[in-house]
């Protein structure tokens, strides 16, 4: 009769040991299990920053570096960061433009009036020199086609990619292209030209009238 309680005790000890072992195994599994969410974040972050455009395509376009600056930019473009077409690096737009008048030309690779206007802008930039910053803003997510278009037009102006039209929204411009935004040295907007310029003199006269920059 004494053998039955002893058997129960042995069985109870066995179950406790088995349960303890199971807890240890589960804890170890949790500790070493891959964090799927964290890994995806780390793996996808570079892809979300990179545009997929090859360095060879960028180099073939022969675009100059985008303007840069450390000043604290102001105005409606403050806090806006866009990717530079020349090298893909982020550009703090307001800081890059601070201290000098600027002409921002919004365009897209599929826009025929833009293709006609861009060479005029390049000629104007050469004529104006350092008196004003002329920056193209590709308002479409297809960066590769933007680079190919600029190469085909032989236009070599500094440019940025605005895939989701944030700049156009910030200045209150309509959803048409081309658009030229004239920015004062203090970051405020002097004017938004919702049209295509018809020549270098047209650009020079407009900029002189709105920003006081003679060229």
From TrEMBL:
Q: Matching InterPro entries, A to Z?
A: Redoxin (IPR013740), Thioredoxin-like_sf (IPR036249), Thioredoxin_CS (IPR017937), Thioredoxin_domain (IPR013766), Thioredoxin_ResA/DsbE_sf (IPR050553)
Key word Transcription present = no
Organism ancestry = Bacteria, Bacillati, Actinomycetota, Actinomycetes, Mycobacteriales
Matches recorded under Gene3D superfamilies:
Glutaredoxin
Give the residue spans that cross the bilayer.
14-33
Q: Where is the Thioredoxin domain?
A: 57-212
Instruction: Give the subcellular location.
Output: Cell envelope
Protein name as it appears in the record: TlpA family protein disulfide reductase
Q: Could you tell me which Pfam families the record lists for this protein?
A: Redoxin
Keyword terms: Cytochrome c-type biogenesis, Disulfide bond, Membrane, Redox-active center, Signal-anchor, Transmembrane, Transmembrane helix
**Which organism is the protein's source?**
Nocardia beijingensis
Q: Can the keyword Transmembrane be found in this entry's annotation?
A: yes
């Amino acid at each position: 009769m004494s053998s039955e309680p002893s058997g129960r005790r042995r069985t109870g000890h066995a179950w406790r040991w088995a349960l303890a072992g199971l807890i240890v195994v589960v804890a170890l599994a949790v500790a070493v299990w891959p964090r799927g969410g964290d890994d995806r974040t780390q793996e996808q972050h570079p892809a979300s920053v990179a545009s997929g455009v090859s360095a060879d395509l960028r180099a073939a376009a022969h675009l100059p570096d985008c303007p840069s600056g450390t000043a604290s930019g102001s105005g409606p473009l403050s806090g806006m960061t866009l990717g530079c077409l020349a090298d893909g690096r982020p550009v703090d737009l307001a800081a890059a433009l601070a201290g000098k008048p600027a002409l921002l030309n919004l365009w897209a690779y599929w826009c025929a009036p833009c293709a006609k206007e861009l060479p005029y802008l390049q000629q104007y930039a050469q004529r104006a020199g350092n008196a004003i910053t002329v920056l193209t803003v590709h308002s479409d997510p297809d960066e590769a086609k933007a680079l190919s278009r600029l190469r085909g037009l032989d236009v070599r102006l500094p440019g940025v990619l605005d895939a989701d039209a944030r700049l156009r929204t910030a200045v209150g411009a309509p959803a048409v292209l081309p658009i030229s935004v004239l920015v004062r040295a203090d970051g405020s907007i002097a004017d938004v030209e919702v049209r295509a310029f018809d020549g270098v003199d047209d650009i020079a006269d407009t900029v002189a009238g709105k920003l006081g920059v003679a060229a």
